[in-house]
């Protein structure tokens, strides 16, 4: 899809069901769980060149609301975010390109990298135990530029950092010299057109994951991670849609962790009467190795012991299999109201190989063995099987997207309080 035509189509139809639309994390979570096979504003985190598709708009949301709370208590979602994109056209009234875009977002948690932070870490002396703090900067910065022919380039940096402090239960931050956590990612992307019916994307990223108990500099001896993604949109006029092949790879290295993953897939998206549908199939290969990590599979807590790294005993977990995902949205009753549903299902064959030195420990593998695994069935997160939601479009300017709590229709109203929605986001185009 041409960048200029995508912007025009997105502005004209909004959430009415096109491949390129101003939308949100809530739209994706309730309509298939990922952005691989559609063009959505959340795609800017997959490829910063896509910032040029969404000029001059604001975005904000309360973040996911999936934490457990006691009946009769009230607690807001934990990670709200807000930001915007601003563009300056350097062209003329007939062609807005070339164009310069700048954007930023505060508060987003990069789940792809934050999952490699433990709950606690044991110091190199084997005695000091420090809680790994939650990062507080959590900033995404974007810079984009288009050429006169519509080809686009983009740069992105993500900084999530905390050093020497922690948040108390009252919300006041206090000193903790051992508290340190840092995630930094820098990436660049391209979005290029080949003819009238082919749009090609590529992104490459360099990342660094670090945590305490001691402060570290970015260029200290340690581990760097690399990520790459690519996809193409082939226009299929016969079905008013697009064929989308995609490939991604990541090589994550963090203290005590080595994770390699490759994913190859093929998807399709189709514009329907007053709606939109997409579907994708992926092949997945994942290899995770870890040493001196322990996990409590009841509470979800994890501990990394940095004391004995001279002769590490690596456990290995290998997954191979596939995933199918889909999403659909359609206007009902009124033109300004849209409902969405979508889901994903992975089936992986898992091979666990626990090092003999780790027998009896609870690491990434608790024993040797083989089994089948899948994504969470219904834990209310963005990774589980099914999502449902709706959107509101007010004069093609203000758009509100909502992910509905999965137990809403099955809840006993006399049982106690519960959440109605698990996510609510909004955008405003100007």
Commentary on this structure:
The protein has about 425 residues and is mainly beta. The chain is about 5% helix and about 50% strand. It is built from 3 helices and 23 strands. It has helices at about 5-15, 25-30, 110-115; strands at about 20, 40, 55-60, 80-90, 100-105, 120, 130, 140-145, 150-165, 175-195, 200-210, 225-235, 240-255, 255-270, 275-290, 295, 300-305, 315-330, 335-355, 370-375, 385-395, 400-405, 420-430. The protein has a 16-stranded antiparallel β-barrel. A 4-stranded mixed sheet has the order 7-6-17-16, with no helix packed on it. A two-stranded parallel ribbon has the order 1-2. A hairpin with a 3-residue loop joins strand 21 (about 385-395) and strand 22 (about 400-405). The longest helix is centred in the first third of the chain and has 11 residues, at about 5-15. The chain is globular and about 65 Å long.
